[in-house]
């Protein structure tokens, strides 16, 4: 996992997960904390890692290389979520009001913390490169929210999960896992549904390990705590397809990282 997630959930939880998998499968698992999503994606593509928890955009690239989409978390009964542009309470009221201000993003590979919210700005008729005076990458959803609350950034992008019945915020980058203790931000704009993140299994891993790992995800609470999930499903081949158009458009403008490739 990336360090920003490991820090939120504690390295002890990640180590516990590795111990559970080792005991259940008879293979030796260890936890690995990467600096960023691209590092994880490159190591999966090159066979240096067996499993990695990936944002949907890079998982889409890895699926195209033949890696296995093993599991998707279910949160609030859904395998999709949304992204939001958030501002401090009483801050800017429209995207136009962000002219000349600072934006905080997670990183360039983050789906909800950069790519999809950025497309929302483009669809509203604005060029983000001209709209903001500065754009900063703070490498964590918590860090985005903190930048907005502290005033270091006028707007930030993060994830939000909605209750499927009430359509109210169930949890988000500015709340605890149970949706409580919300930080003092307001939603400026929200995207449509985004496919949930994915556990990717490298092609180099013995195929029989896949079902064993998926069973462990649902049998042990440690995985649900680590990933703020209520359960896990095997995703369909079409799970990530809604993102393809967004990714193609962003890459055409030079605003998304290049495709993940294998080292020859």
At a glance:
This protein is an alpha+beta fold and 264 residues long. Helices cover 35% and strands 21% of the residues. Strands 3, 4, 5, 6, 7, 8 and 9 form a 7-stranded mixed sheet that branches.
Named CATH architecture of the largest domain: 3-Layer(aba) Sandwich
Query: Which class of the largest domain in CATH terms?
Result: Alpha Beta
Helix % is 25-40%
Order of helices and strands: HHHEHEEEHHEHEEEEEHHEH
Q: Low-confidence parts, pLDDT < 50 over ≥5 residues?
A: none
Counting DSSP E segments of at least 2 residues, the number of strands comes to 11
The mean pLDDT is 88
Structural class: alpha+beta
The radius of gyration over CA amounts to: 18 Å
How many individual helices? 10
**CATH homologous superfamily identity of the largest domain:** Cypl, domain I
Fold and architecture overview:
The protein is an alpha+beta fold. The chain has 2 domains: 3-76 and 196-252, 3-Layer(aba) Sandwich (D-Maltodextrin-Binding Protein, domain 2), CATH 3.40.190.180; 82-194, Periplasmic binding protein-like II (D-Maltodextrin-Binding Protein, domain 2, 3-Layer(aba) Sandwich), CATH 3.40.190.10. 35% of the residues lie in helices and 21% in strands. It has 10 helices and 11 strands. It has helices at 3-9, 11-25, 37-45, 56-64, 111-123, 128-131, 141-150, 209-219, 221-226, 244-252, and strands spanning 51-54, 68-74, 80-88, 102-105, 134-137, 155-162, 169-172, 185-190, 194-195, 198-201, 231-233. The longest helix is centred in the first third of the chain and has 15 residues, at 11-25. The chain starts with a helix and ends in a 12-residue tail after the last helix. The mean pLDDT is 88.
């Amino acid at each position: 996992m990336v360090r920003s997630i490991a820090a939120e959930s504690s390295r002890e939880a990640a180590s516990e997960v590795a111990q559970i998998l080792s005991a259940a499968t008879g293979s030796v698992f260890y936890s690995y904390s990467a600096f960023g999503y691209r590092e994880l994606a490159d190591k999966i593509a090159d066979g240096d890692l067996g499993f990695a928890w990936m944002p949907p955009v890079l998982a889409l690239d890895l699926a195209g290389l033949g890696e296995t989409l093993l599991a998707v978390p279910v949160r609030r009964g859904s395998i999709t979520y949304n992204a939001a542009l958030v501002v401090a309470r009483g801050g800017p009221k429209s995207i136009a009001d962000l002219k000349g201000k600072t934006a905080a993003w997670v990183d360039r590979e983050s789906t909800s913390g950069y790519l999809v919210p950025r497309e929302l700005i483009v669809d509203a008729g604005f060029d983000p490169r001209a709209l903001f005076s500065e754009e900063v990458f703070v490498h964590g959803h918590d860090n985005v929210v903190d930048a907005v609350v502290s005033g270091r950034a006028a707007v930030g992008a993060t994830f939000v999960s909605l209750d499927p019945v009430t359509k109210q915020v169930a949890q988000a980058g500015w709340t605890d896992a149970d949706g409580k203790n919300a930080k003092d931000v307001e939603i400026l704009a929200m995207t449509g549904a985004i496919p949930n993140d994915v556990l990717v299994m490298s092609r180099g891993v013995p195929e029989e390990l896949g079902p064993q790992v998926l069973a462990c995800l649902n049998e042990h609470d440690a995985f649900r705590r680590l990933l703020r999930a209520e359960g896990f499903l095997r995703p369909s081949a079409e799970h990530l397809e809604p993102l393809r158009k967004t990714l193609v458009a962003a890459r055409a403008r030079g605003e998304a990282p290049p495709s993940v490739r294998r080292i020859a």
